Here is the input.
Amino acid sequence: MFSLLIHIANLKENDRKKIPVLLRELPESLKAITNIWLLTLITECLTIIPDSDIRVNIFNLSYIHLHWVSKKHVMMSNIIRINSVGEYNNMVGQETLHPLVSIIDFSKVKPFAFARTQINLYAILLKDIKCGNIIYGIKEYDYEDGTLIFIGPGQVYGVDSDGEKRQAAGYALIFHPDLIHGTSLGKHINEYSFFSYEVNEALHLSARERDVINECISNISYELQHAIDSHSKTLIVSYIELFLNYSKRFYERQFNTRSHVNIDILSRFEKVLSDYFASEKALDEGLPSVKYCADKLFISPNYLSDLLKKETGKSAQEHIQMKMIDVAKEKIFDTGKSISEIAYELGFKHPQHFTRMFKKQVGMSPNEYRNLN
Here is the structure.
């Protein structure tokens, strides 16, 4: 921490823009410290630094960091939390026709102020017009018209707003997890992995696809207008499942039409794995996770795995294991190293786990492979 303060304090005026980046490099444990503790730390640093210019810069840094922490706290405190369909309907001025599901036609509700929202429901948003930058988690994306965004329970999303009420356009399908409990959809909801995609991985619909989605929305809306009876839940859930299955098909089309982008991601994914095993990260941190690779590629883990599955027939986890086996085969030829040493280098805490995985993938143990070759 002290060395970071010194480094920032010595930055030239033109390099001050680097300060936010450097602050983000702080470990999470230091980011979470209280303002009082931070001021105490900076005060202690000031007492042992003779250079007056550096002292002034560090004092300025304390103000910058406290402002950054304060702004982050305000952003988090301004998040609206929605736990029920009724709460969401009240927020946008929509009548609640069913306690567990709602279709909102934004062109028919009154203008309202957009805000960041943590929604403990499933939400599917279809926008007719460009409405500004949507924030998903902590990232900001340009949210264009004609896109479908899928939001799972507990996720944070929203649109930048100055508090001014605006007229939205498009539709939202909102449903509570309780709606699908005990149904076929409830058993398979995790298979619709796009509920965990990032906003920049939204589904962009063609005109014909848009017509199909509109029909699904119309069917659900019709059932909501109908008096609730013994068939309501079955029909509504069936239409939602049909909606999601069409979305899955349309995502596959999007993967296909973006094959040149996919090829680039595949090649960069391969490089991420090669660089990881060429370094000592495996020895220190274990095998690379799907999340680690996805973060390096600036996409979500589910999107990466679905893309790989579509392009190669294998998941991201399977690709990681295959890469590890390829690296292991090369290392096994080095007879100067024991199988246990190779296992540790590849990120295994227990060599027997490496042996078991190698035999499962290759059909023989590492020692048998070494002796055969």
Summary: The chain has a mean pLDDT of 77.
